[in-house]
């Protein structure tokens, strides 16, 4: 079992690296068509990884925050990481729709929203918040029937004191967007947990490499995993907070 989990984790990292290169080329060559093709290719790769998993498993979905979490297991079973750096909620919906599940996962875990908060998406767009709500509502409605449980998190913390963070992100809207995620998650019957609660204090923010992404050492990663497991599998969670 341990070898199977390790093998799936290594395969997931290799697939993400290869497809990351494809994404760069796609952006350079044909813009939007390249991004769409990457999403479909990513879903194809993740679907292939899922076929290699025997028994129970979890599926991790989201943006670079989830991609960097690097959790090989959740609730004692393999966790396949289908996250994509740079994606927004609409893009995640597309990828999730293309992923073929061999059987329902024990849990689908979702961390999304950071890239929906970029100034490029928010500035001069009074409909941005309601558009985000529409996409999040649709995402949870589509995921809920496909898994035994869907777990969602709020948007990870920003450190607004870091250079460039408030220039590129509408940090002030993060709490509103996280509130929308919680509301729409609960509407769909999903489970909401702030897996990053321990990283929102000054010490946690100081560990962030850039003020946007989580600063994850082995201890903080275990704490995040423990919070996710408490929501995903409260009866069998093995890690402690």
TrEMBL record:
Which InterPro entries does the protein's record reference?
Answer: SGNH_hydro (IPR013830), SGNH_hydro_sf (IPR036514)
Regions that span the bilayer: none
Which positions fall inside the SGNH hydrolase-type esterase domain? 75-214
User: Which Gene3D superfamilies does this one have?
Assistant: SGNH hydrolase
Q: GO: which molecular function terms?
A: hydrolase activity, acting on ester bonds
Superkingdom of origin:
Bacteria
**Listed Pfam families:** Lipase_GDSL_2
Q: What is this protein called?
A: SGNH hydrolase-type esterase domain-containing protein
